[in-house]
Amino acid sequence: MVISFYYGGKLVGQATTTCPEGCRLSLGQPGLPGGKLCGPEGLELVRFPPADAIPSERQRQVTRKLFGHLERGVLLHSSRQGVLVKRLCQGRVFYSGNAAAGRAGPNKLERDEVVRVFDTSQFFRELQQFYNSQSRLPDSRVVLCFGEEFPDMTPLRSKLILVQIEQLYVRQLVEEAGKSCSAGSVMQAPEEPLPDQVFRMFPDICASHQRPFFRENQQITV
């Protein structure tokens, strides 16, 4: 997964992890026993970047106050089936993703509940439609919003903390589809059961999903 952090609409940090057990987004290693989203223990710890880089003093203060409710963070797990999230922190967390398509109003994550926020099979169906009829490219992103309702009519730049999550190979499939569209070429997706068909359509990209893209305990650069 590629995880990007935005404070006040500005990118302040990014991390890439392929840890099979998933990862925990939090301020630091919690003292409480870690909940498991699935599989054995061994979650990669991905830290929120500090608020020091925020130029507005008031925004820094409010963001740090919000940090006080995010100690335990959230758990993320990525697989061929999609992206799962489990909220552990006290602070409210809202999300957008293709698994929530068609829902009206903000989408709230309930505490200690595992929620699929991205459905890979749905993405593959939409990608097949794109290749068959040149419909719009499917969205590969999941966005988590901490402490504020989302999605709503408020501009993204006004949100204190947004975290964007993408499955790396899914993002690469979107980029490849965009290149084929720009080149004027259309690839017909085979009429086979999904999602395995896409792994045969782009074997190199999907195989790269298995290669390591991070170092152990890699720090987020700000």
Automatic annotation (TrEMBL):
Coiled-coil intervals, chain numbering: none
Top-level taxonomic group: Eukaryota
Pfam families per record: IRF-3 (PF10401)
Ranges where the Interferon regulatory factor-3 domain occurs: 1-178
Segment forming the signal sequence: none
PANTHER family linked to this entry: INTERFERON REGULATORY FACTOR (PTHR11949), INTERFERON REGULATORY FACTOR 8 (PTHR11949:SF7)
Record's protein name: Interferon regulatory factor
Protein species of origin: Pontoporia blainvillei
